[in-house]
Please model this.
Amino acid sequence: MLKLPSSQIQFIPKYAFSTSSGKGSSDDDSGIDPDGLPTSNAHESDPSSTPLPPAVPPLALSPQNIPENFPIVPVIAISGSPLFPKFVKMIEITDSRLISLIRRKIKLNAPYAGIFLKKPNTEQSDVANSMDELHRVGTFVHIPEWDDLGSKIRLLVIGHRR
Model:
């Protein structure tokens, strides 16, 4: 058997959680719950034991509240591949009017937009001059992150629905 110096030994605390709502009867001071695991009384009676760390609230994921009807959103024209729901894409915008509109939407806590794919025979620009330059169906997106670079803005968009 190999012996390690005490400086290399690390103790990992073991935590036990129970689904019972109470500590049991008041005359039960054994320090062991019905499952055979030590309760908090056992730690209080032994001053040499290490105290448990403070409880940390659970960090549960919560669903995003994406509005069902969002009537007015900026329209961003993209070229290349379309953005489908549940896909993520990085978009860089250079048009000053569209940048100011998106900045305003972000400040108003409404970081949403409509992404539409440009038809193949149109120019490469962030802005469409008419609806005829865009495909008829687009994707409603959420903008969770952005980098404001002054003359351009870089957006991370997540598609939610068509």
